[in-house]
């Protein structure tokens, strides 16, 4: 069975162009949705995918009508393929029920993976360059310099609890224990 999916982003837009093209392509049942293409929650699309059975083909006017991103589109096609459901785009003339259509999606997948790898490499190179210049990532320490010595003194006197010291210093209890592993016991045994 040919199942059609038509999506418009806003209420003011009309599905007519898409529906006419889908009907002309022989679609027997059309699912219409009005939602942003970037929205993850698209209940009509999900219902259509859930109702599709092995041997069905989902037909769309354009791949942009069904996929939020290349990654989403590839995941969707992989899921449909595993369930023996095809995807056909009228505008891009891609049909995953044919060898040529599967080849195009394999290329999309390879390009997506290439993009992910390039991003990882650029990120890694950027972090290494920053480290070489003496910069490290992460949040700056909140207990440094004189604050460390004040916290050490307050801990060693034993007059305040660790919670009270943390509140006085404007840090969390965890910050105190990271600076002084073992708390008072760690100080007594020669820690930091």
Largest sheet: 5 strands, mixed
Question: Can you tell me the CATH superfamily of the largest domain?
Answer: Resolvase, N-terminal catalytic domain
Rg of Cα set: 29 Å
**Percent in strands:** 5-15%
Can you give keywords for this protein?
2 domains; 8 helices; 5 strands; elongated; Rossmann fold; alpha/beta; five-stranded mixed beta sheet
Q: Could you provide a short overview of the structure?
A:
With 192 residues, the chain is α/β, with parallel strands linked by helices. It contains eight helices and five strands.
Word description of this protein:
This protein has 192 residues and is of the alpha/beta class. It has 2 domains: 2-98, Resolvase, N-terminal catalytic domain (Rossmann fold, 3-Layer(aba) Sandwich), CATH 3.40.50; 146-188. The protein is 51% helix and 12% strand. Strands 2-1-3-4-5 form a 5-stranded mixed sheet, sandwiched between helices. The longest helix is centred in the middle third of the chain and has 34 residues, at 99-132. The mean pLDDT is 86.
């Amino acid at each position: 069975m040919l199942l059609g999916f038509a999506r418009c982003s806003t209420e003011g837009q009309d599905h007519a162009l898409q529906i006419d093209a889908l009907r002309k392509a022989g679609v027997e049942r059309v699912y219409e949705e009005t939602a942003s293409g970037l929205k993850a929650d698209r209940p009509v699309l999900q219902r259509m995918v859930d109702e599709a059975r092995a041997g069905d083909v989902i037909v769309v006017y354009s791949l942009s009508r069904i996929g939020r991103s290349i990654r989403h589109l590839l995941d969707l096609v992989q899921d449909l393929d595993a369930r023996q459901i095809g995807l056909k785009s009228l505008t891009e003339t891609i049909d995953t029920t044919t060898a040529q259509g599967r080849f195009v999606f394999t290329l999309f997948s390879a390009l997506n993976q290439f993009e992910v790898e390039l991003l990882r490499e650029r990120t890694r190179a950027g972090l290494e360059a920053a480290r070489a210049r003496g910069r490290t990532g992460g949040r700056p320490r909140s207990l440094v310099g004189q604050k460390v010595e004040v916290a050490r003194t307050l801990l060693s006197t034993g007059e305040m609890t660790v919670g009270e010291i943390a509140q006085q210093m404007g840090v969390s209890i965890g910050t105190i224990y990271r600076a002084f592993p073992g708390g008072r016991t760690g100080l007594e045994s020669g820690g930091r």
